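To fix ideas, we now present one chain and its tokenised fold:
***
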Amino acid sequence: MRFKDSASTINFRVLLRIIGLLLIIEGAFLSVPLVTSLIYQERDWINFLFTMGLTLTAGSLMTFCIRPRSQRMAKREGFLLTALVWVFFSIFGMIPFMLMEKDPLSVSDAFFEAMSGFTTTGATVISSISHLSHGVVIWRSLMQWIGGMGIILFTLAVVPMLNHSGGMQMFNAEVTGITHDKLRPRISQTAKGLWLIYIVLTAVLFVLLIIGPMNVFEALCHSFSTMSTGGFSTADDSIEAWDSVYIQIVMTIFMFLGGTSFVLLYRAAHGELKPIWRNDVFRTYVGIIIGCYLLFVIAIIKNGQVHSVKSVTLDPLFQIISTITSTGYEISAFSSWGTFVLSLAFALMFFGSCAGSTSGGAKIDRLIYLLKNCRNEIVRSIHPNNILTVRVNDRVIPHETVSKVIAFLCLYVMIIMVGGILLTAMGLPLVDSFFSAFSCISNTGLGAGVTGYGGSYSVVPDLGKWLLALIMMIGRLELFTVLILFTPTFWKK
């Protein structure tokens, strides 16, 4: 098959070559579970070696055998590459789950698990983690860590040519939010700066967890899944398996940092502390947490669930931050706090935390834009001649941006509705269908067990798992990045 490289066609050659390079990188990451399996003398090392070899071979063939006539990458290439990378990573990342020695997963289950990992959703089809090998467990957490900061962002950091060839388009297509502040003139330098902060925070978290009751393996897995706000654990009881206040405090802090814009964290690391609190989004993020904490405490007291000081201090704070950052760790007492708390959790899941973070959801940035625009419309109905603008961080937001936010939120809700309706057509109960679609697009990954249907997504039909996997990817990327691929206009010359 010959691909045309003209201005009117998509430059498939350069796309496939970049994907090949990224598969080589994914193959290198597979060495981590491979070595882990060897250390623990588990037979799954053969599966990881095979997957690693297959991934490296495919990546090498695509990188070195495909010769693009031009390095041109326009907007269309940027959108398509962003979506394809996540699909390819999930396809090769699912292979170890299909080859597991104990209870191997089907193609549908394995792809769902891999996509859930890379998108940091944390939804799972695996009912029990205890039978999994150490290699498989660490691969689940590592997938979340890779996807947390973003595969494309990593690409921009290691492939310099993309700095001047569609780099900004790819950056905006993957990093969710409205506006993306560049830290450096070159987008590759920005990507390196963000990844550096991400790596440093992960390393610090790892050290702090080791100090506690976790061993090295457990600390490494949880540092991956916590910093990425993914939520995969090494135990069926999640963090409650350690029954440690220390662990809970440390994870609460780093989940909070994971929900903060990494641009702000980068500047804070370089001594620019004042811009953090002056940032409207960050202040709203903190304000929502404080407000929900007070409401949670009132609900806990009202429902007679005060069993210790911890139940009205650390537990609600941990649950709020876990939910708003889409990490998905859950306190066992959460379900007994009442329906009011559950409804607040839904609101936290919907908007998530800050843009430019590892969390899911529609982002607080868009909530601020929406509320300020609604206020303006109310005032304008009384004073129609007033000229009102949406202002965030002392900057006037263009009307086009506000319109895009409204369109985004409408599409966000429509996807939940369509996804829920399609799942009901597949035989799932009404509440569980809509909750599953909601949980997946927000990348929270809370199991349908919250609504009483089941503890994992294994009960969802195969077709439903493919649908939810697509919804997870749509939620992880900018909605328009994926949806535009389903429009005839995108593919027209």
Q: What stands out?
A: Residues 1-7, 450-454 have pLDDT under 50 and may be disordered. The longest helix spans residues 399-425.
